[in-house]
Amino acid sequence: MLTVENLTVQFPGRFGTFTAIEDVSLTIERGEIHGLVGESGAGKSTIGAAIIGLLQPPGFVSNGSIHLGDTDLLILGDDEAHQTRGKRISMIFQDPQTSLNPLMTIEDQLIETIQTHEDISTEDARSRAISLLEETGIENASQRIKAYPHQFSGGMRQRVVIALALCTNPELIIADEPTTALDVAVQSQVLDLIRGLANTRGIGFLLITHDIGVIAQTCQNVTVLRGGQVMEHGPTQQVLNAPEHPYTQSLMAAVPRLDVKLDRFLVPDTEEGVETAPIGRSAEDAERWLRSGDEMLGQGLSMEGVTVKFTGARDSLFRKPEVFVALDDVSMTIRPGTVMGLVGESGSGKSTMAKVLTGLVQPTAGTLKLNDSTLPLARQRGRKDPSRRVIQMVFQDPYSSLNSRHRIGDILAEPLWLYGLENDRAKRRDLAAAMLDLVGLSADAINRYPHQFSGGQRQRIAVARSLLARPRVLICDEPTSALDVSIQAQVLNLLKDLQARFSLTILFISHNLAVVRQMSDDITVLKSGKVVEAGPSEAFFNDPQADYSQELLSLTPNYVGQKGVASQTLVTEV
Amino acid sequence: MMSRFFQSDGVYYFLRTPSAIVAAIIVVIIVGGAIFAPWIAQSNPYDLASFSLMDGLLPPVWQGGDPRFLLGTDNQGRDMVSSILYGARLSLFIGFMSMAIATVLGVGLGLAAGYYGGRFDAIVMRIADVQLALPAILTALLIDGISRGLLPPSVQQDLRVVVLIIAIALSLWVNFARTARASVFVERNKDYVQAAMIMGQRPSRVMLRHILPNIMGPLLVIMTVDLASAILLEATLSFLGIGLPADSPSLGTLIRIGMQFQLSGEWWILWVPTIVLAALVVSINILGDFLRDIFNPRLR
């Protein structure tokens, strides 16, 4: 149905022409879900944009052809292309928050879309809209259709977006990371819906994602991209379980496994090779310096009965504002020198826990303990409190956690200066350079700015910064969820190494159960601000006790040992 | 170092934006002329000995005037070119000074308001609201009146410039405070600021060393746009007679003087300073727009 042949897309720019897509071919049949997988910058979204005709200028198709049925999409005029785009191809975007107009009701948006492409009465359009909403699994659709987008939850909103894409009864839907912004439970519902639509309506889907698990769950065929080129393509089962291309093999090896804990990740060979060209100072200097700290023993961290309440905005002078309970009587003990994994869906209070421990949020009740001595709560914790140095944090987004206006050397020297660990300016620079070597970066990076580094390299810099405070406890809030799998594997390996070598205590926060399994000794599961289950990690993964934990585990996509989901879809292929 | 400057995005896009190039040339000519006025002007309009009443009301050269006076003379025999250079000098000085004071005051208060939030924020922002409700002219009149009441008459003449600068700065700082505050609200929740706070850095250091460099983009744009507003405000006040007196003319004062001759045929006394003022303000605004585009890649 859709045939893309030898597609090449180029972006002319100031420093020469950049070829985003090179010689890509793929076909999608009726009712087929075709996965397009690759790391960031691989050109996945560019292919989608080229098919639907929404390439960002100055990008253009320099070679190849795109056919939908018998229509050549590339030779269409503007008006025809616009018609085709709406009527025969639809698109689902990543973020359901921004792909709906917040000022229009669902009804208005659906009816508007239907009437744009078809000359039918508003009444007919409305009944079509309601039946579409019902088809996408929205209950009580005739009532709910009057609502505004913000009155739906994230998953419901993505259903509405899908209904919107179905309005014109398209032949092909391009879904660009449709579940990346959603929690696992909601993700699996949305993927079910997509599978159902492919089966019942015979719509072809191009599913763009970076998540191998999602591919395994939904797609019949998959194309693996890297640097704008097709590395491998074929039936999902074959590509995922018996990859032929070395890149695909290493990519699969880097995906954290949910079913078994491995000591180290196999790191695929990427351009982001670990540079080692130290200038004078080397990792040994940094290691010696780290070990010369007075208290090398692991330090335990615990919280007891912590409750955090946030007051909402005051909407009336005479009524008290509503109170939101972010954490409800939470207790947790991290043993010295171990890794505690903290899992939960978005909004479960994971990050709030990190903020309580680092002293950014004042709990309403509860106590904290660092190695048997009381750790002051946020407002009582002075700027000079020793725990400020002992507890360090690694943030999720390496793009915002480093000040983009400072040089790497200055960023790294800051903790040394602030905590008075090293008073000599030149020695601070030396130590910063040595620490860069320890985390696997070239020491000459100290003269550069953060934007000159990739995400994974920045995360290494962030880790180096926290190490330069000579910490005993690291709080890692989703440290790899903004990174590609291969980079994620490298950063996780680094954290594991450091943890083992310096017996650090780590609180590892993640929504990804597979990553947590690889990292942690113990585990705490959080739901709506309450601890659902806590205990040793391996015991949890082998035999989860709480209903919620079991549900969470069963919903997490897993490409190996997949419980027949992928094969099931293969059977029902149209 | 220099080669890096010439390869930067700013220079690259500048050389591809004709309007910005023209605007920059105009600004450089006027600002350069103003700075070097004492050396390039043929006469000093403040010095009675350097001009003669005999040369009064000569038209520009292309209308058959004296070749010594390119743009003609006014009724006192002062060379228009010299008057404009000296006038622009005063206008630009007042504009720059009031913009600088407004920047320091506004950014300082905005940073602190955004960082601390709560009651301090509410108080600063309500003061800003009140300030916005008062027209600049009213503020200038108020300060002018207070200074007249408090200061002895001998000092008053000398302090007219200071009074003007303070009055203009007071009506401009709100822009800076609001922009800085809004930007701080965004930056404050970014991880690098949180990291600095977790480390236990002093609030002043977090604000000045971490947040400020990251919000400079929008502030630079406001600085250029507000420089133009400050120059216009000064011209307005001087035109209305609240600003500078006739013996130390800024562009605004020159325009006021020129008004008298508008209908009697000596058009150049009014129009030449007016065109210079308009060209200056428009050019600065175009440069401000260009800067905004540079700092916001999405508009490119």
Architecture overview:
The complex is a heterodimer of chains A (574) and B (300). By secondary structure, chain A is α/β, with parallel strands linked by helices. Chain A has 3 domains: 1-88 and 172-255 and 559-574, Rossmann fold (3-Layer(aba) Sandwich); 97-167, no CATH class; 283-299 and 336-362 and 375-555, 3-Layer(aba) Sandwich (Rossmann fold), CATH 3.40.50.300. Helix content of chain A is 36%, strand content 23%. Chain A is globular. Chain B is an all-alpha fold and 300 residues long. Chain B has one domain (33-40, 60-299): MetI-like (MetI-like fold). Helix content of chain B is 73%, strand content 0%. Chain B contains 13 helices and no strands. In chain B, helix 3 packs across helix 5, helix 6 packs across helix 8 (153-188) and helix 7 crosses helix 8. The chains are: A alpha/beta (574), B mainly alpha (300). At the A-B interface, strand 16 and helix 14 of A face helix 9 and helix 10 of B. Chain A: It is a peripheral membrane protein. Chain A: Belongs to the ABC transporter superfamily. Chain A: InterPro entries: AAA+_ATPase, ABC_transp_ATP-bind, ABC_transporter-like_ATP-bd, ABC_transporter-like_CS, Oligopep_ABC_C, P-loop_NTPase. Chain A: Keywords: ATP-binding, Nucleotide-binding, Transport.
Order of helices and strands of chain B: HHHHHHHHHHHHH
The whole-angstrom Rg of chain B is: 22 Å
Write down the oligomeric state. Answer: heterodimer
**Over the alpha carbons, how many angstroms does the gyration radius of chain A reach?**
26 Å
Taking the alpha carbons of the first and last residues of chain A, their distance comes to: 13 Å
Q: Could you name the CATH homologous superfamily of the largest domain in chain A?
A: P-loop containing nucleotide triphosphate hydrolases
CATH class wording of chain B: Mainly Alpha
What distance separates the N and C termini of chain B?
Answer: 26 Å
Give start-end ranges of low-pLDDT stretches of chain A. 271-279, 561-574
Poorly predicted runs of chain B are: none
Number of helices of chain A: 21
The largest interface is: A-B, 28 and 16 residues
* CATH superfamily placement of chain B: MetI-like
CATH-derived architecture of chain B: Orthogonal Bundle
Class by SSE composition of chain B: mainly alpha
Number of strands of chain A: 20
CATH top level class name of the largest domain in chain A: Alpha Beta
Proportion in helices of chain B = over 70%
Number of domains of chain B: 1
Mean pLDDT of chain B: 85
Pfam families (chain A): ABC_tran (PF00005), oligo_HPY (PF08352)
Main location (chain A): membrane
GO molecular function (chain A): ATP binding; ATP hydrolysis activity
GO biological process, one term (chain A): peptide transport
